[in-house]
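General statements about sequence and structure are easier to judge against a single worked case. Part of our work consisted of pairing the sequence of a single chain with a tokenised description of its backbone. The amino acid sequence and the backbone structure tokens for this protein are reproduced below.

***
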Amino acid sequence: ELKQELTRTLSTDNPRLPQTIVRYSFTEQAYKIVDDMDQTAIHLTLNGFLIHKDSDEGRRQSIRSSTESDKASDEKEETPVEDSAQTTEEAEVKEEEPTEDAEGEGEGEGEGEEEAEAEAEAEGEETAEAADAAEEEEPPAPKESEKKVANQFNFIERGTATLINALREKGNQTDPAPFVVYSANVNQWDIYDAYVEELKRKEKEKEKEKAKPQAVKKEDKKLGRKLSYVDAQHIDALSNVAKAAKIAERMVNLNTFDDIAQDFKYFEDASDEFRGQKGTLLPLWKFQYEKTKKLAVTAISWNPKYKDLFAVGYGSYDFMKQSHGMLLLYTLKNPSFPEYAFSSESGIMSVDFNSHHPHLLAAGFYDGNVAIYNLKRPASQPSYKSGAKSGKHTEPVWQVKWQKDDMENNANFFSVSSDGRIVSWTLVKNELVHVDVIKLSAGTTMEGPEGLQLQMLGCGTSFDFHKKIDYLFLVGTEEGKIYKCSKNYSSQFLDVFEAHHMAVDSVSWSPYHLKAFISCSSDWTVKIWDHTIKTPMFVYDLGTAVADVAWAPYSSTVFAAVTIDGMAYVFDLYINKLEPLCTQLVVTKKKNKTTHIQFNPAYPVVVVGDEQGLIVCLKLSPNLRKKPK
């Protein structure tokens, strides 16, 4: 309570003034509330005893003071008379003392005048010469009183009135805007000619666009740098102010969410000291977009260059409720609105940023297509997209992963789908070229009509490439098996792990340990494996289906998982090999499931997505981000 701040505003208005005083206005023939009430409140009044110099009393006092000054000059020349001195003293005292009643004032003035006359007579009797001199001096006496020193208590003499500034007028005369009367006749063949010209122009533009990328490639080899083309014609008015508007929007958002930004940067949960080894997740920003409220978060990927930027794919995991999809890019600097937004006809199931070219973003769709979005030239449609002719998958693409550029410096990525194919896509001369790397066979055959032996294909749901060994990768399937594969062998697997009893939702190599990988499944378990051993090293039962699992970038022993009941778990094997350090409810609404979790590569935060299209950013408390020795 002591720290609470109470703001009180002082104003010049009197609060006790009646607000509803009404007077009759004759001009409007109605009663009107009086607005301009006198706001002054008088706290102290004193009756002064200053006398106006032009009043009768003031004149008398001025005459008296002038006569006294004359006497004083005479006394210096001659010996003073005691009686006269006493009388003058009495007169002075009576002048100084303010009289209480008007009658007393009158008497005092009478006496003073009589005494003054008596003194003058006494002086006249003493010396005739002095009397003559006094007579000569008497006529100019009033003049002297006019020249007397100005009364310092007479405030009217002071320059108190302020100057009133003279009014000035300023005006400009402008020329009227020029106008021209224009008229023309239009007939049908003119219109037809105009359409034909427009079609020719569009065809020329298309030809130019087709020719441009090849020209770029040639110059690429010579200069070793990329050249971008800008069409100056199609820049609209908004794009000129877009950058300024974006900066202003970010500033407004920083002011709005200032307390969250302060928590993100500086808040360290002090209560961790009293929790032993346990920790907590502090909710920070929430990212939500109006058009994605009914879509689920299907993929999250952080940008490798801009640590505050992340891409989110939206779609639906429900086979019966498939609709459109969206790809949004958010930054932590602006939680209220996405930086980029792309919509697609089919739901987006997976996204991944290219680590060498951070502006390239690969996406996999529910209809089996894959696409590449170029953020340097954002358009409503992806820059490159597969099609039915160019080897698209026949089932949803559950995961896409970029690989290092090939020998000819062409960007390439891999995709995994339920149709059992793992496909490598390479960007060659402005189009996507596909190569089937491996086909997952379930190892069982089914007897078809007329005794045909049909081979069953395994349904890939997730995969991950080894961080150091380029050719090695893992594939998780719907049956619960994990295959260890190599890019060099297209027909056989290096190893098969009987990992789970249900679909493998996520599989991921450890970023620090070359042999270890982690997997999670809908059979409620998270397992940590050594790829040289067929049995898991750690098994954690989380009590409900596990949607996603992710390794922490700052420690080899920390990982996090989310379950479909809205809980987030953070484990640290270095501290506790049996139980999670943090178990926290992330999603508040009922019937809402968490779908994905990702660690930020630089900051101590995680982002969690759910089925309602909401993304929550959470900060890890100090106990959850201890670095091992």
User: Anything to note?
Assistant: Residues 294-445+457-624 form a domain with the Methylamine Dehydrogenase; Chain H fold (CATH 2.130.10.10). The first strand starts at residue 22 and ends at 25.
